[in-house]
Design brief:
With about 500 residues, the chain is of the alpha+beta class. It is about 50% helix and about 15% strand.
C-alpha cells in the first residue's frame, strides 16, 4: 500500500476554552484587504470559476441537484424542483417569480456600480440555487460588503475581486452542508484560520446558521425572502466573522501553500488568534507536525499550522467538534500480518494506540504494546460479522425510524438545528444496524458498555460495530484506547 497517507488526529472541542471572535476594526480590515488582494489576477476566469479553482481537490460531495437541460433547466434537490428557468435569455416563457427576482437583484446592484455586481449571471440569465445562496450571503454581510468595495477604491475591476471572495466563501460554506463536513488543501487552511480567529464554538454556530440560510435560499422565490435569510444569518455571523472570512480568502487567493504563512502572520489580530488557537488545543497539532524542531518560533506556530494542515473534519457526533488531521509522510508499512496480509498504519493516537488496515480490507485497533503480529491469520467470525453488517446497512432507510426518532428529528429541523437532525438520524441508523446484527448473532455475548461483542471462547480480541466515518474511527479509538478489537464498519 505504498503511497497511502497516514493521519494523526488531534481534536478541538467546543467548551475546551473560552473563545470569542478576534476583533477587527473597519480601518484595519480595509487596509489589510487592499494589501492582500492587490496582486490578485483573475485572468479569463469568472469569479465563480476562480473560486472553484481555489477550492479544488475537496472531498467529493453528493450532487446537490440533478440537472436536466433542454429549453429549460430544472434543478432538483431531494426530489423537489428548486428552479426551473429558461436557457434562452430571450425566451417568451419566462417564469414570473424568477424574472422578478432577477429584476430586484439588478436593482440592488444599481447602488454597487450597476449591472451584475456579484457575477451571478455568468452561467445563465437567471438565478440558480448556488446563485441564490451567494446573494443571501452577500446580503448577510451588510455594511462589511460596502467596506470591502470601498477598500479597493479605483483598483482594477474591484467588483470582480469582491465577487470572487464572496463566491469562495459561499462555495466553502457549501462544503458544510453534509453530515460530516471535510475540507482539504487550501479549504482546510481556511478552516484553521476560522477556528483560530473565531473559536470552535462560533464556527459551529456558523455551520448551523449556514445550514438554515441554505435551506431558506433553496425555498426562496423572492428577493425579500433571500434578504430575510441573509439577515438571520447576519445575526449569527457578526461583522468580525464576516471580515475574518474575507481576509482569510484574500490571504489564500492566488497563492500556493508555501506562500501563505507570511500573509497569515500579517492578518489583523494574529497574536490573539494564535493564543486562542493554542488554548483550544492547537498546540498539539504543531507537536504532531514537529514544527518546533524545525525552528518555528511560537508566534509563527499558527501560520505554520495553516500551511501544514492536510484535512479538517467537523462532526456533530458526541462532543467532538473539529478534528484536525495532519499529514506525517506516508503510511508506515508494519510488515505482513500472520497469514501474509500487508499491514498499513492509517491512524496513530496520542496514547500510543493505533489503527491498521490489512490488505484484505480488515481494520483493527491495536492498543499500546500490541503489534500487527497479534492479529489472527484468519478470523471467520469477524468476516461473517462484516459481511452481515454490509448487507444489513444496505437495507436501512427513513422508513426504519421509530415514531420517537422521527419526532426528535423533525423537532430539530423545525428549530433550525440541521446538524443535530443529521446526528440524530445517524445515531438511529447505527442503532438499527446493530439491532439487526444482535438478532442475527444472538449466540454471541453482546455488551451495552465498552466493546460491543466480547470475543468467544476466551479469544483475546473483540469486535466493535460502528459507522465507518473518519471521525467515528477516531472517536472509538480514543474511547477504547486499551482494547484489542476488530472494527466491523458499515
Amino acid at each position: 500500500m505504498a503511497g497511502t497517507t497516514v493521519y494523526e488526529v488531534e481534536v478541538l472541542e467546543p467548551g475546551h476554552a473560552a473563545t470569542r471572535p478576534v476583533s477587527i476594526g473597519r480601518a484595519e480590515f480595509q487596509r489589510s484587504f487592499q494589501r492582500l488582494v492587490r496582486e490578485v489576477q483573475l485572468g479569463n476566469k469568472t469569479p465563480q470559476e476562480a473560486a472553484r479553482e481555489l477550492l479544488k481537490g475537496q472531498v467529493e460531495q453528493p450532487a446537490e441537484w440533478q440537472q436536466l437541460e433542454g429549453v429549460w433547466l430544472a434543478e432538483v434537490y431531494k426530489d423537489r424542483v428548486l428552479t426551473l428557468v429558461p436557457q434562452d435569455e430571450n425566451s417568451r416563457l419566462i417564469p414570473e417569480a424568477d424574472e422578478a427576482l432577477r429584476s430586484r437583484y439588478v436593482q440592488w446592484c444599481a447602488r454597487r456600480g450597476g449591472g451584475d455586481c456579484l457575477h451571478l449571471f455568468d452561467d445563465g440569465p437567471y438565478l440558480r440555487t448556488d446563485d441564490r445562496r451567494t446573494l443571501a450571503l452577500a446580503l448577510s454581510f451588510g455594511s462589511v460588503l460596502e467596506e470591502t468595495l470601498e477598500a479597493l477604491g479605483r483598483e482594477v475591476n474591484p467588483r470582480a475581486v469582491v465577487a470572487t471572495c464572496l463566491w469562495t466563501v459561499s462555495l466553502y460554506l457549501a462544503l458544510w452542508l453534509v453530515p460530516e463536513p471535510t475540507t482539504k488543501a487550501l479549504a482546510a487552511s481556511l478552516s484553521v484560520i476560522l477556528v483560530a480567529w473565531l473559536g470552535v464554538d462560533t464556527v459551529w454556530g456558523l455551520m448551523d446558521g449556514w445550514a438554515r440560510l441554505a435551506t431558506q435560499a433553496h425555498q426562496a422565490t423572492t428577493f425579500e425572502e433571500l434578504r430575510e435569510a441573509g439577515e438571520q444569518f447576519a445575526k449569527v455571523l457578526g461583522k468580525d466573522a464576516a471580515r475574518t472570512m474575507l481576509l482569510a480568502v484574500g490571504a489564500l487567493t492566488g497563492r500556493t501553500l508555501g506562500e501563505v504563512a507570511a500573509r497569515v502572520r500579517s492578518l489583523p489580530g494574529y497574536s490573539a488568534a494564535g493564543a486562542q488557537w493554542e488554548a483550544q488545543g492547537g498546540a498539539a497539532v504543531l507537536g504532531r507536525l514537529q514544527v518546533r524542531e524545525m525552528g518555528v518560533a511560537r508566534e509563527g506556530a499558527l501560520a505554520a499550522a495553516v500551511e501544514a494542515v492536510e484535512m479538517v473534519v467537523a462532526t456533530p457526533e458526541g462532543a467532538v467538534a473539529v478534528a484536525v488531521l495532519s499529514q506525517n509522510g506516508s503510511a508506515s508499512a508494519a510488515g505482513p500480518a500472520p497469514g501474509g496480509n500487508s499491514v498499513t498504519t492509517v491512524l496513530r493516537h496520542r496514547g500510543g494506540n493505533q489503527q491498521v488496515v490489512l490488505g484484505n480490507g480488515q481494520r483493527w485497533h491495536l492498543p499500546r504494546g500490541r503489534s500487527p503480529q497479534d492479529i489472527p491469520a484468519e478470523d471467520p467470525l469477524g468476516d461473517e460479522l462484516q459481511a452481515a453488517a454490509n448487507q444489513v446497512a444496505k437495507q436501512w432507510g427513513p422508513g426504519e425510524l421509530t415514531r420517537d426518532e422521527k419526532a426528535a428529528i423533525n423537532e430539530a429541523i423545525e428549530a433550525g438545528n440541521y446538524f443535530q437532525a443529521s446526528r440524530l438520524e445517524g445515531q438511529a441508523r447505527g442503532r438499527w444496524v446493530e439491532a439487526q446484527l444482535r438478532e442475527l448473532f444472538k449466540h454471541l455475548k453482546w455488551k451495552r458498555q465498552g466493546v460491543d461483542i466480547t470475543g468467544p471462547n476466551g479469544q483475546e480480541y473483540h469486535y466493535e460495530v460502528l459507522a465507518g466515518s473518519a471521525d467515528n474511527f477516531g472517536r472509538h479509538g480514543r474511547r477504547m484506547y486499551d482494547v484489542f478489537f476488530r472494527m466491523i464498519f458499515f
